Amino acid sequence: MREVAIGDDMIRLGQFLKLADLIDTGGEAKVLIAEGDVTVNGEVDTRRGRQLRPGDVVAVGGRAVRVVA
C-alpha cells in the first residue's frame, strides 16, 4: 500500500484525494465522494470535508493509500 505524507495534523478527504493523485480535479472528488465510491478505513464516507489523520486508509477505484505524517 502506498503512503502519502501530509504537512499538518489533518487534511480534508477531498484535498487528500488530489494530493495522493487518486483523482485529477476537485470536481471529480466531489462526484466520487457523493456517489459513495470512496472509503475511509473500509467504510464509505460521503463527506468531502471529512478530516483525515495519519493512519487513515483511503480507497477509490481499487487503489488504497495510507495517510502518514
Give a verbal description of the structure:
This protein has two helices and seven strands, in the order E-E-H-H-E-E-E-E-E. The protein has helices spanning 13-19, 26-34; strands at 2-5, 11-12, 38-40, 43-44, 51-52, 57-60, 63-68. A five-stranded mixed beta sheet has the order 1-7-6-3-4, covered by helices on one side. Strands 2-5 form a two-stranded antiparallel ribbon. The model has no long low-confidence stretch (mean pLDDT 96).
Task: Please give the largest β-sheet.
Answer: 5 strands, mixed
Reported CATH architecture: Roll
How many angstroms separate the termini?
Answer: 16 Å
Backbone CA Rg: 10 Å
Number of domains: 1
Give the helix level as a range of percent: 10-25%
Low-confidence stretches: none
CATH topology: Structural Genomics Hypothetical 15.5 Kd Protein In mrcA-pckA Intergenic Region, Chain A
Query: Helix- and strand-based class?
Result: alpha+beta
Secondary-structure element pattern, one letter each: EEHHEEEEE
Strand content: 25-35%
Categorize the overall geometry.
globular
- The averaged pLDDT comes out at 96
Q: What is the number of beta strands?
A: 7
List the helices and strands and how they pair.
Elements: E1 2-5, E2 11-12, H1 13-19, H2 26-34, E3 38-40, E4 43-44, E5 51-52, E6 57-60, E7 63-68
Parallel strand pairs: 1-7
Antiparallel strand pairs: 2-5, 3-4, 3-6, 6-7
At a glance:
With 69 residues, the chain is α+β, with helices and mostly antiparallel strands. It contains 2 helices and 7 strands. The chain has a single domain, classed as RNA-binding S4 domain (Structural Genomics Hypothetical 15.5 Kd Protein In mrcA-pckA Intergenic Region, Chain A).
